[in-house]
Amino acid sequence: MLIHGEDDTMAPVKATRVLCKRLAEEKVQTVMHILPQTDHAFDLILPKISPSAHNAFYDVERFLALMAGKQKAKEEQQKPGSV
């Protein structure tokens, strides 16, 4: 999962886009979310009220739930007697 602020001046968003593209080319499951009007370290300053931080936390939770669901399904398939 890649989360990046669109207006990040310390680490340009182009690098994240390139990384996402290269991961996809290698068949690595990747999710990228570019947060509009967001700078570097957006989650460090007032994260309780920052809309960007809220979006990032929500995306991370959804991504982890997705990965946990896939892992559970994989484990179910590997159980003896499963189809």
TrEMBL record:
Q: Which domain of life is it from?
A: Bacteria
Stored InterPro entries: AB_hydrolase_fold
Q: What is this protein called?
A: Peptidase S9 prolyl oligopeptidase catalytic domain-containing protein
